[in-house]
């Protein structure tokens, strides 16, 4: 495993672009355009994808792909998920229905989530504590998914690196659990 594709998904404004900018060693590729959706409170929004790279201490290269968050661009979610070894789902806890947002991504990425590692990062928990982490974990369990759920501030490089490290541990565990061909 010398090159890894990681997918970062979540609603518009959850912090996908910010997370990639926080850790990328290259100038991130961004397809931000002027936001015309009144439901999204930000000036720019991702229309295609974000892209960044991160080299691990062992020399492995991570390719970080951020999806657009608006559902009208959901066709990009599956396109970008091809070949991904892991998914970071960013959930904005300040939105009206964070568990519904989580369901949107679980449903849209169901095929990918059945075969890859996943970490759910809940953003803005400092100001919006409900649902709590246990509520997210129980919701995931009810949907047949078992993956770590952690709070995150993706503006902080160290927290994004910690998310990626947690995802890499999940990827490693999955690779050890899968049958090897001889």
Structure description:
- With 182 residues, this protein is an alpha/beta fold.
- The radius of gyration is 16 Å and the shape is globular.
- It has 6 helices and 7 strands.
- A hairpin with a 5-residue loop joins strand 3 and strand 4 (61-66).
- It has helices at residues 16-23, 75-81, 98-108, 110-115, 133-142, 157-177, and strands spanning 3-10, 29-34, 44-55, 61-66, 86-92, 117-123, 149-152.
- Strands 2-3-4-1-5-6-7 form a 7-stranded mixed beta sheet, with helices on both faces.
- The chain has a single domain, classed as Rossmann fold, CATH 3.40.50.
- The longest helix is centred in the C-terminal third of the chain and has 21 residues, at 157-177.
- Helices cover 35% and strands 27% of the residues.
What distinguishing features does this structure have?
Rossmann fold; 27% strand; 7 strands; 182 residues; alpha/beta; 7-stranded mixed sheet; globular
Shape: globular
Instruction: Give the helix tally.
Output: 6
Q: What name is given to the CATH topology?
A: Rossmann fold
Instruction: Based on the coordinates given, report the CATH architecture.
Output: 3-Layer(aba) Sandwich
Radius of gyration: 16 Å
Mean pLDDT: 87
What is the helical fraction, as a range of percent? 25-40%
Please tally the β strands and state the result. 7
- Sheet with most strands: 7 strands, mixed
Q: Spell out the CATH superfamily.
A: P-loop containing nucleotide triphosphate hydrolases
**What structural class do helix, strand and pairing data support?**
alpha/beta
CATH class: Alpha Beta
Write down the secondary-structure element order: EHEEEHEHHEHEH
Ranges where pLDDT stays below 50 over 5 or more residues in a row are none
Overall tally of domains = 1
Spatial ordering of strands, largest sheet:
2-3-4-1-5-6-7
Query: Percent of residues in beta strands?
Result: 25-35%
CA distance, first residue to last residue: 18 Å
């Amino acid at each position: 495993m010398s090159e890894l594709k990681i997918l970062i998904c979540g609603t518009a404004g959850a912090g996908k672009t910010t997370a990639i900018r926080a850790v990328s060693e290259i100038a991130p590729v961004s397809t931000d355009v002027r936001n015309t959706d009144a439901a999204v409170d930000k000036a720019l929004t991702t229309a295609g994808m974000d892209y960044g790279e991160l080299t691990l201490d062992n020399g492995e290269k991570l390719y970080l792909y951020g999806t657009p968050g608006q559902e009208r661009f959901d066709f990009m979610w599956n396109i970008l998920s091809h070949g991904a070894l892991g998914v970071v789902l960013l959930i904005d806890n300040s939105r009206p229905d964070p568990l519904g947002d989580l369901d949107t991504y679980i449903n849209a990425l169901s095929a990918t989530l059945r075969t890859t590692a996943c970490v759910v990062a809940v953003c803005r928990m400092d100001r919006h504590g409900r649902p709590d982490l246990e509520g997210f974990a129980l919701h995931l369990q009810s949907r047949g998914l078992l993956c770590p759920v952690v709070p995150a501030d993706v503006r902080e490089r160290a927290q994004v690196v910690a998310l990626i490290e947690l995802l890499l541990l999940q990827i490693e565990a999955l690779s050890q659990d899968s049958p090897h061909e001889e």
